[in-house]
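INTERNAL AUDIT FORM
Audit reference: QA-55
Scope: verify that the stored structure record matches its stored sequence.
Auditor: D.O.
Record contents follow.
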Amino acid sequence: MDAFTPTLAPELWTSEFIKCLYSVLNFDGKILTYSSSASIRHAFLENNFYVGKIYNEHEQKFTGTIATKNKDLIKYPLDEFDKGLINSRAGITFKDETLCASKEEIIARREKEINESDLISTTQFIKKFKGEQYNGL
C-alpha cells in the first residue's frame, strides 16, 4: 500500500477504509506499507488484522508495517514501544464513517479528537518509556 502520507491522503488511511481492505483480503494476503504510524497500525488492529513490522535487511532497520489475517505471516511483531504509541494520542485513527468526507474534514475530525483526548500525549509516553527503559538497566 503505497498511499501518500496520512496528512496528504487521509481518506486512504481511515479506519473505515482499512475495514474495506480487510473484507477483500484473502487469508494469506498481506498489506505492506512504508508507514510505521501508530494511527495506521491502530486502524489495522481495530479492524482485526494482525500487525507487525517490516525489517529491511539491506538497511538493517525496520521500515514499515505488515497487516494480515494470518498471524503466522508476522515475522516481527510490534514491541512494547509500538504498542504504547498505539495507545497514546499518536494512535488516534483517522475516521470517515461515510467514506466520502474531504481530506480536510478527516484531518479536522482527528485533530479535534486528539485535542479532546484523555490519552497520554506522545511526548509524555516517549519520555516515560525511555525513562523506564533507562531505569531498568
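Auditor finding: record pair retrieved intact. The radius of gyration is 15 Å.
Action required: none
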